[in-house]
Specification:
By secondary structure, the protein is mostly helical. The longest helix is centred in the first third of the chain and has 27 residues.
């Protein structure tokens, strides 16, 4: 596959460089906010898993089923991944 050859002016190169820097800054801010949420997120997940084992989940309309402890997935060793 051949690409069309083109040249960018210095002004456009400078603008692209600035835009990339700003996007990286915004991305790093979002990642930092997500990292700060880690303890709360772990608590939310633990509360949810406890709730579905004690109260249950809706299977159909008003029918509920408790989830057995062996059905609960094991927490992975990797870091929790949030997709933006």
């Amino acid at each position: 596959m051949k690409f069309i050859a083109h040249k960018r002016s210095r002004a456009i190169q400078a603008w692209l460089k600035q835009e990339i820097a700003e996007q990286k800054k915004r991305y790093n801010k979002i990642v930092g906010e997500q990292e700060a949420l880690t303890p709360k997120r772990d608590k939310w997940i633990a509360d949810f898993l406890y709730r579905i084992q004690t109260r249950g989940v809706h299977v159909h309309y008003n029918q509920m089923r408790k989830v057995a402890p062996e059905e609960i997935p094991v927490k992975p060793k990797r870091k929790f991944k949030v997709v933006f």
